[in-house]
Amino acid sequence: MTSRKDRALNLLIFALALLEALYLLGAFRLAGLFPVIGADFRALYAAAQAARENGFAAIYDPDRTFPYQEALCRMAGSEAPCMFIPMVFLPAFVLLALPLTALPPAMAFATWSGISLLLALLALRPFLRAFPGPERHKLLAVMLLSYPSLMNLLWGQVNAWLLLGLARFQIHREARADLRSGLWLGWLLLKPQTLILLLPGLALAGQWAALAGFGVSACLILALSLGLSGPQGLWEWWGWISGFARPHPALAPAVVGAETMMNWRALGVWLQGTLPAWILWPGIGAAMILTAIPVLIAWRKAGKKEAWEDDRLMLATWTATFTTSWHAHPHTAMILMPSLLRAIHGEMIPRGLWLSWSLIPATLPFLVILLDALRVPLPEGGVVSFLAGRIYMILHLVLYGWAIRPFFSGGRHP
Protein backbone atom coordinates (compact mmCIF):
# COMPACT_ATOMS: atom_id res chain seq x y z
CA MET A 1 0.00 0.00 0.00
CA THR A 2 1.07 3.57 -0.58
CA SER A 3 2.10 5.32 2.60
CA ARG A 4 0.77 8.69 3.65
CA LYS A 5 4.18 10.28 2.91
CA ASP A 6 4.20 8.83 -0.60
CA ARG A 7 0.66 10.08 -1.26
CA ALA A 8 1.65 13.54 -0.05
CA LEU A 9 4.72 13.50 -2.31
CA ASN A 10 2.63 12.39 -5.29
CA LEU A 11 0.20 15.25 -4.67
CA LEU A 12 3.09 17.72 -4.35
CA ILE A 13 4.63 16.51 -7.62
CA PHE A 14 1.31 16.90 -9.43
CA ALA A 15 0.70 20.38 -7.99
CA LEU A 16 4.24 21.49 -8.81
CA ALA A 17 3.99 20.22 -12.39
CA LEU A 18 0.76 22.15 -12.88
CA LEU A 19 2.14 25.33 -11.30
CA GLU A 20 5.35 25.22 -13.32
CA ALA A 21 3.41 24.78 -16.57
CA LEU A 22 1.22 27.77 -15.68
CA TYR A 23 4.31 29.76 -14.63
CA LEU A 24 6.03 29.20 -17.97
CA LEU A 25 2.86 30.06 -19.90
CA GLY A 26 2.33 33.17 -17.78
CA ALA A 27 5.94 34.29 -18.19
CA PHE A 28 5.68 33.80 -21.94
CA ARG A 29 2.46 35.82 -22.06
CA LEU A 30 3.64 38.67 -19.81
CA ALA A 31 7.31 39.00 -20.77
CA GLY A 32 7.31 37.46 -24.24
CA LEU A 33 9.84 35.21 -25.88
CA PHE A 34 13.52 36.31 -25.80
CA PRO A 35 13.56 39.48 -23.66
CA VAL A 36 13.28 37.14 -20.63
CA ILE A 37 12.07 33.69 -21.67
CA GLY A 38 14.86 32.00 -23.62
CA ALA A 39 17.25 34.91 -23.04
CA ASP A 40 20.34 32.70 -22.93
CA PHE A 41 19.21 30.81 -26.02
CA ARG A 42 18.74 34.21 -27.66
CA ALA A 43 22.49 34.88 -27.26
CA LEU A 44 23.38 31.47 -28.71
CA TYR A 45 20.90 31.74 -31.59
CA ALA A 46 22.05 35.27 -32.45
CA ALA A 47 25.70 34.15 -32.39
CA ALA A 48 24.83 31.29 -34.76
CA GLN A 49 23.04 33.76 -37.05
CA ALA A 50 26.11 36.04 -37.01
CA ALA A 51 28.37 33.06 -37.73
CA ARG A 52 26.20 32.02 -40.67
CA GLU A 53 26.14 35.52 -42.17
CA ASN A 54 29.58 36.90 -41.21
CA GLY A 55 31.72 33.93 -40.18
CA PHE A 56 32.61 32.61 -36.74
CA ALA A 57 35.03 35.46 -36.08
CA ALA A 58 31.94 37.66 -35.58
CA ILE A 59 30.30 35.73 -32.74
CA TYR A 60 32.12 37.62 -29.98
CA ASP A 61 31.66 41.08 -31.51
CA PRO A 62 28.73 42.97 -29.90
CA ASP A 63 28.39 45.20 -32.96
CA ARG A 64 27.68 42.14 -35.10
CA THR A 65 25.64 40.01 -32.68
CA PHE A 66 23.55 42.54 -30.77
CA PRO A 67 21.48 43.56 -33.83
CA TYR A 68 20.39 39.93 -34.14
CA GLN A 69 19.53 39.86 -30.44
CA GLU A 70 17.53 43.08 -30.74
CA ALA A 71 15.57 41.65 -33.66
CA LEU A 72 14.69 38.63 -31.53
CA CYS A 73 13.63 40.79 -28.60
CA ARG A 74 11.41 42.91 -30.85
CA MET A 75 9.30 39.82 -31.50
CA ALA A 76 7.81 40.51 -28.04
CA GLY A 77 6.94 44.10 -28.99
CA SER A 78 8.58 47.25 -30.28
CA GLU A 79 9.20 48.51 -26.74
CA ALA A 80 10.45 45.20 -25.34
CA PRO A 81 13.70 45.55 -23.33
CA CYS A 82 16.78 43.82 -24.69
CA MET A 83 19.85 43.49 -22.49
CA PHE A 84 22.95 42.39 -24.40
CA ILE A 85 24.13 38.89 -23.47
CA PRO A 86 27.57 38.01 -24.90
CA MET A 87 28.52 34.65 -26.40
CA VAL A 88 30.73 32.91 -23.84
CA PHE A 89 30.93 29.43 -25.43
CA LEU A 90 33.75 28.19 -27.61
CA PRO A 91 33.02 28.40 -31.35
CA ALA A 92 32.77 24.61 -31.60
CA PHE A 93 29.72 24.66 -29.32
CA VAL A 94 27.98 27.33 -31.40
CA LEU A 95 27.73 24.63 -34.07
CA LEU A 96 25.03 23.05 -31.88
CA ALA A 97 22.69 25.94 -32.69
CA LEU A 98 23.73 26.53 -36.29
CA PRO A 99 21.14 24.14 -37.82
CA LEU A 100 18.41 25.82 -35.75
CA THR A 101 18.95 29.10 -37.62
CA ALA A 102 17.10 27.47 -40.54
CA LEU A 103 13.99 27.54 -38.33
CA PRO A 104 11.91 30.54 -37.26
CA PRO A 105 13.14 31.75 -33.84
CA ALA A 106 10.12 30.54 -31.86
CA MET A 107 10.29 27.10 -33.45
CA ALA A 108 14.06 27.02 -32.89
CA PHE A 109 13.56 27.71 -29.18
CA ALA A 110 10.87 25.02 -28.94
CA THR A 111 13.19 22.56 -30.69
CA TRP A 112 16.06 23.49 -28.37
CA SER A 113 13.81 22.95 -25.35
CA GLY A 114 12.70 19.57 -26.66
CA ILE A 115 16.32 18.54 -27.26
CA SER A 116 17.22 19.61 -23.72
CA LEU A 117 14.44 17.45 -22.28
CA LEU A 118 15.52 14.48 -24.39
CA LEU A 119 19.17 14.89 -23.34
CA ALA A 120 18.17 15.03 -19.67
CA LEU A 121 16.16 11.82 -20.05
CA LEU A 122 19.04 10.07 -21.81
CA ALA A 123 21.48 11.25 -19.17
CA LEU A 124 19.41 10.16 -16.16
CA ARG A 125 18.09 6.88 -17.56
CA PRO A 126 21.11 4.71 -16.59
CA PHE A 127 21.03 6.06 -13.03
CA LEU A 128 17.29 5.44 -12.69
CA ARG A 129 17.50 1.79 -13.77
CA ALA A 130 18.64 0.80 -10.28
CA PHE A 131 15.24 1.78 -8.84
CA PRO A 132 11.93 -0.14 -9.05
CA GLY A 133 9.42 1.15 -11.62
CA PRO A 134 7.13 3.36 -9.49
CA GLU A 135 10.04 4.92 -7.60
CA ARG A 136 11.94 5.42 -10.85
CA HIS A 137 9.10 7.48 -12.33
CA LYS A 138 8.73 9.51 -9.16
CA LEU A 139 12.45 10.31 -8.99
CA LEU A 140 12.50 11.32 -12.64
CA ALA A 141 9.54 13.65 -12.08
CA VAL A 142 11.21 15.20 -9.02
CA MET A 143 14.44 15.81 -10.93
CA LEU A 144 12.70 17.32 -13.97
CA LEU A 145 10.56 19.58 -11.78
CA SER A 146 13.48 20.80 -9.69
CA TYR A 147 14.49 24.45 -9.79
CA PRO A 148 17.64 23.86 -11.93
CA SER A 149 15.56 22.04 -14.56
CA LEU A 150 12.90 24.75 -14.56
CA MET A 151 15.47 27.53 -14.97
CA ASN A 152 17.32 25.60 -17.66
CA LEU A 153 14.06 25.50 -19.63
CA LEU A 154 13.10 29.09 -18.81
CA TRP A 155 16.40 30.64 -19.93
CA GLY A 156 17.13 28.19 -22.75
CA GLN A 157 20.36 27.18 -21.04
CA VAL A 158 22.91 24.53 -22.11
CA ASN A 159 23.01 22.51 -18.90
CA ALA A 160 21.32 19.46 -20.41
CA TRP A 161 24.36 19.05 -22.68
CA LEU A 162 26.63 19.31 -19.63
CA LEU A 163 24.44 16.79 -17.81
CA LEU A 164 24.74 14.27 -20.63
CA GLY A 165 28.53 14.63 -20.83
CA LEU A 166 28.94 14.25 -17.09
CA ALA A 167 26.50 11.32 -16.90
CA ARG A 168 28.39 9.42 -19.59
CA PHE A 169 31.67 10.23 -17.79
CA GLN A 170 30.31 8.70 -14.59
CA ILE A 171 28.84 5.64 -16.34
CA HIS A 172 32.11 4.85 -18.12
CA ARG A 173 33.99 5.66 -14.93
CA GLU A 174 32.01 3.03 -13.06
CA ALA A 175 32.71 0.55 -15.87
CA ARG A 176 36.46 1.25 -15.52
CA ALA A 177 36.57 2.55 -19.09
CA ASP A 178 39.11 5.19 -18.11
CA LEU A 179 39.96 6.72 -21.46
CA ARG A 180 36.36 6.72 -22.70
CA SER A 181 35.15 8.39 -19.52
CA GLY A 182 37.66 11.19 -19.95
CA LEU A 183 36.61 11.76 -23.56
CA TRP A 184 33.11 12.72 -22.36
CA LEU A 185 34.54 15.37 -20.05
CA GLY A 186 35.22 17.54 -23.09
CA TRP A 187 31.53 18.54 -23.00
CA LEU A 188 32.20 20.33 -19.72
CA LEU A 189 34.27 22.89 -21.62
CA LEU A 190 30.90 24.46 -22.32
CA LYS A 191 31.39 25.79 -18.78
CA PRO A 192 35.07 25.29 -17.93
CA GLN A 193 34.53 26.43 -14.33
CA THR A 194 32.84 23.08 -13.66
CA LEU A 195 36.23 21.37 -13.99
CA ILE A 196 38.17 23.33 -11.36
CA LEU A 197 38.16 20.50 -8.78
CA LEU A 198 37.51 17.42 -10.90
CA LEU A 199 40.65 17.70 -13.03
CA PRO A 200 43.01 18.23 -10.06
CA GLY A 201 41.17 15.44 -8.22
CA LEU A 202 41.72 13.00 -11.09
CA ALA A 203 45.40 13.94 -11.13
CA LEU A 204 45.77 13.45 -7.37
CA ALA A 205 44.09 10.02 -7.67
CA GLY A 206 46.41 9.00 -10.50
CA GLN A 207 43.64 8.79 -13.09
CA TRP A 208 45.96 9.50 -16.01
CA ALA A 209 43.94 7.60 -18.60
CA ALA A 210 40.84 9.64 -17.81
CA LEU A 211 42.89 12.83 -18.01
CA ALA A 212 44.34 11.67 -21.32
CA GLY A 213 40.82 11.14 -22.64
CA PHE A 214 39.87 14.64 -21.54
CA GLY A 215 43.03 15.97 -23.17
CA VAL A 216 42.10 14.34 -26.48
CA SER A 217 38.53 15.71 -26.52
CA ALA A 218 39.67 19.13 -25.28
CA CYS A 219 42.29 19.37 -28.03
CA LEU A 220 39.73 18.40 -30.67
CA ILE A 221 37.25 21.02 -29.42
CA LEU A 222 39.93 23.71 -29.23
CA ALA A 223 41.33 22.80 -32.66
CA LEU A 224 37.83 22.95 -34.18
CA SER A 225 37.21 26.28 -32.47
CA LEU A 226 40.55 27.62 -33.71
CA GLY A 227 39.72 26.51 -37.23
CA LEU A 228 36.31 28.17 -37.08
CA SER A 229 37.20 31.56 -35.57
CA GLY A 230 41.00 31.83 -35.75
CA PRO A 231 43.33 32.93 -32.93
CA GLN A 232 41.60 36.31 -32.62
CA GLY A 233 38.25 34.62 -32.02
CA LEU A 234 39.67 32.49 -29.20
CA TRP A 235 41.32 35.54 -27.70
CA GLU A 236 38.00 37.43 -27.75
CA TRP A 237 36.29 34.37 -26.20
CA TRP A 238 38.79 34.46 -23.36
CA GLY A 239 38.11 38.17 -22.91
CA TRP A 240 34.42 37.50 -22.32
CA ILE A 241 35.12 34.54 -20.04
CA SER A 242 37.44 36.62 -17.89
CA GLY A 243 34.89 39.44 -18.05
CA PHE A 244 32.48 37.29 -16.10
CA ALA A 245 35.08 37.09 -13.35
CA ARG A 246 35.96 40.80 -13.28
CA PRO A 247 34.10 43.92 -14.48
CA HIS A 248 33.80 44.21 -18.26
CA PRO A 249 32.82 47.55 -19.84
CA ALA A 250 30.22 45.95 -22.13
CA LEU A 251 28.67 43.77 -19.44
CA ALA A 252 25.71 44.91 -17.36
CA PRO A 253 25.97 43.57 -13.77
CA ALA A 254 22.56 41.92 -14.16
CA VAL A 255 23.93 39.71 -16.95
CA VAL A 256 26.63 38.31 -14.67
CA GLY A 257 24.19 38.16 -11.75
CA ALA A 258 26.87 37.50 -9.13
CA GLU A 259 24.45 38.18 -6.25
CA THR A 260 22.16 35.35 -7.41
CA MET A 261 24.86 32.67 -7.57
CA MET A 262 25.17 29.70 -5.20
CA ASN A 263 28.81 30.27 -4.24
CA TRP A 264 31.02 32.11 -1.76
CA ARG A 265 31.38 34.96 -4.26
CA ALA A 266 27.64 35.67 -4.01
CA LEU A 267 27.92 35.85 -0.23
CA GLY A 268 30.73 38.37 -0.62
CA VAL A 269 28.62 40.52 -2.96
CA TRP A 270 25.71 40.32 -0.50
CA LEU A 271 27.88 41.38 2.45
CA GLN A 272 29.54 44.28 0.65
CA GLY A 273 29.26 47.41 2.75
CA THR A 274 28.83 45.53 6.00
CA LEU A 275 32.54 44.71 6.28
CA PRO A 276 35.65 46.47 4.99
CA ALA A 277 36.74 45.05 1.62
CA TRP A 278 40.17 44.15 3.01
CA ILE A 279 38.47 41.84 5.51
CA LEU A 280 35.54 40.62 3.40
CA TRP A 281 37.22 39.42 0.20
CA PRO A 282 40.25 37.73 1.80
CA GLY A 283 37.70 36.00 4.02
CA ILE A 284 35.71 34.87 0.99
CA GLY A 285 38.92 33.64 -0.64
CA ALA A 286 39.83 31.70 2.51
CA ALA A 287 36.36 30.11 2.57
CA MET A 288 36.78 29.01 -1.04
CA ILE A 289 40.16 27.45 -0.31
CA LEU A 290 38.95 25.73 2.85
CA THR A 291 36.00 24.29 0.92
CA ALA A 292 38.19 22.99 -1.91
CA ILE A 293 41.01 21.44 0.12
CA PRO A 294 39.07 18.59 1.81
CA VAL A 295 37.72 17.21 -1.47
CA LEU A 296 41.20 17.29 -3.02
CA ILE A 297 42.57 15.47 0.02
CA ALA A 298 39.73 12.95 -0.35
CA TRP A 299 40.73 12.28 -3.96
CA ARG A 300 44.32 11.73 -2.82
CA LYS A 301 43.19 9.44 0.01
CA ALA A 302 40.90 7.44 -2.25
CA GLY A 303 43.66 6.59 -4.68
CA LYS A 304 43.12 4.94 -8.02
CA LYS A 305 41.03 1.96 -6.92
CA GLU A 306 38.59 3.63 -4.59
CA ALA A 307 38.17 6.77 -6.67
CA TRP A 308 36.37 4.58 -9.20
CA GLU A 309 34.10 2.98 -6.61
CA ASP A 310 32.97 5.72 -4.29
CA ASP A 311 29.92 7.75 -5.29
CA ARG A 312 30.44 9.95 -2.26
CA LEU A 313 33.53 11.37 -3.91
CA MET A 314 31.60 12.60 -6.92
CA LEU A 315 28.86 14.09 -4.73
CA ALA A 316 31.50 15.89 -2.67
CA THR A 317 33.33 17.07 -5.79
CA TRP A 318 30.31 18.69 -7.42
CA THR A 319 28.87 20.30 -4.30
CA ALA A 320 32.31 21.75 -3.51
CA THR A 321 32.69 22.92 -7.11
CA PHE A 322 29.40 24.81 -7.06
CA THR A 323 30.37 26.54 -3.82
CA THR A 324 33.96 27.47 -4.71
CA SER A 325 33.58 28.27 -8.42
CA TRP A 326 33.66 32.00 -9.17
CA HIS A 327 30.69 31.69 -11.55
CA ALA A 328 27.96 29.23 -10.53
CA HIS A 329 24.24 29.87 -11.00
CA PRO A 330 21.61 27.48 -9.58
CA HIS A 331 20.61 26.17 -13.02
CA THR A 332 24.10 24.64 -13.37
CA ALA A 333 23.25 22.37 -10.42
CA MET A 334 21.49 20.12 -12.95
CA ILE A 335 24.78 18.26 -13.28
CA LEU A 336 24.50 17.12 -9.66
CA MET A 337 21.54 14.85 -10.52
CA PRO A 338 23.49 11.65 -11.38
CA SER A 339 25.42 11.87 -8.10
CA LEU A 340 22.21 12.57 -6.18
CA LEU A 341 20.55 9.50 -7.70
CA ARG A 342 23.52 7.32 -6.77
CA ALA A 343 23.43 8.76 -3.25
CA ILE A 344 19.69 8.10 -2.96
CA HIS A 345 20.07 4.52 -4.15
CA GLY A 346 22.96 3.88 -1.75
CA GLU A 347 21.04 5.58 1.09
CA MET A 348 24.00 7.90 1.64
CA ILE A 349 21.84 10.94 2.35
CA PRO A 350 18.55 11.35 4.24
CA ARG A 351 15.36 11.41 2.20
CA GLY A 352 14.51 14.88 3.48
CA LEU A 353 17.82 16.28 2.23
CA TRP A 354 17.46 15.30 -1.41
CA LEU A 355 13.78 16.24 -1.42
CA SER A 356 14.76 19.65 -0.04
CA TRP A 357 17.28 20.06 -2.86
CA SER A 358 14.69 19.16 -5.48
CA LEU A 359 11.50 20.73 -4.22
CA ILE A 360 12.06 23.66 -1.83
CA PRO A 361 13.73 26.04 -4.35
CA ALA A 362 11.16 24.99 -6.99
CA THR A 363 8.38 26.48 -4.84
CA LEU A 364 10.06 29.90 -4.61
CA PRO A 365 8.49 31.46 -7.75
CA PHE A 366 5.02 30.67 -6.45
CA LEU A 367 5.81 31.81 -2.91
CA VAL A 368 6.97 35.18 -4.26
CA ILE A 369 3.83 35.47 -6.43
CA LEU A 370 1.70 34.75 -3.35
CA LEU A 371 3.54 37.31 -1.22
CA ASP A 372 3.23 39.89 -3.98
CA ALA A 373 -0.53 39.21 -4.22
CA LEU A 374 -0.78 39.73 -0.46
CA ARG A 375 1.00 43.10 -0.86
CA VAL A 376 4.00 41.99 1.19
CA PRO A 377 6.88 44.41 0.47
CA LEU A 378 9.62 42.70 -1.54
CA PRO A 379 12.91 43.96 -3.02
CA GLU A 380 12.79 44.96 -6.67
CA GLY A 381 13.71 42.25 -9.16
CA GLY A 382 15.55 38.96 -8.85
CA VAL A 383 14.05 37.88 -5.50
CA VAL A 384 13.50 34.30 -6.62
CA SER A 385 16.99 33.93 -8.08
CA PHE A 386 18.58 35.53 -5.02
CA LEU A 387 16.75 33.23 -2.59
CA ALA A 388 17.44 30.16 -4.73
CA GLY A 389 21.15 30.95 -4.73
CA ARG A 390 21.23 31.26 -0.93
CA ILE A 391 19.24 28.05 -0.43
CA TYR A 392 21.40 26.04 -2.81
CA MET A 393 24.59 27.29 -1.24
CA ILE A 394 23.39 26.07 2.17
CA LEU A 395 22.10 22.76 0.82
CA HIS A 396 25.29 22.10 -1.13
CA LEU A 397 27.45 22.77 1.93
CA VAL A 398 25.28 20.34 3.92
CA LEU A 399 25.50 17.71 1.16
CA TYR A 400 29.23 18.32 0.92
CA GLY A 401 29.71 17.79 4.63
CA TRP A 402 27.60 14.62 4.49
CA ALA A 403 29.60 13.24 1.54
CA ILE A 404 33.10 14.21 2.67
CA ARG A 405 32.85 13.21 6.34
CA PRO A 406 33.60 9.47 5.90
CA PHE A 407 36.93 10.24 4.21
CA PHE A 408 38.15 11.83 7.44
CA SER A 409 36.38 9.67 10.02
CA GLY A 410 39.36 7.39 10.57
CA GLY A 411 37.75 4.19 9.29
CA ARG A 412 36.96 2.90 5.84
CA HIS A 413 34.15 4.94 4.34
CA PRO A 414 31.07 3.05 3.19
Describe the structure.
- With 414 residues, the chain is mainly α.
- Helix content is 67%, strand content 0%.
- The chain has 19 helices and no strands.
- The model has no long low-confidence stretch (mean pLDDT 91).
Strand and helix layout:
Blueprint: H1 4-31, H2 39-54, H3 62-73, H4 91-94, H5 105-128, H6 133-145, H7 147-155, H8 159-174, H9 178-184, H10 198-204, H11 208-243, H12 253-256, H13 264-271, H14 277-307, H15 311-324, H16 337-345, H17 351-359, H18 364-373, H19 383-404
Helix pairs in contact: 1-6, 2-3, 5-6, 5-8, 5-16, 8-9, 9-11, 10-14, 13-14, 14-15, 15-16, 15-19
Short description:
With 414 residues, this protein is mostly helical. The protein has 19 helices and no strands.
Key attributes of the depicted protein:
414 residues; mainly alpha; 19 helices; globular
Helical content, roughly? 55-70%
Oligomer: single chain
Count of separate DSSP helical elements: 19
Major β-sheet profile: none
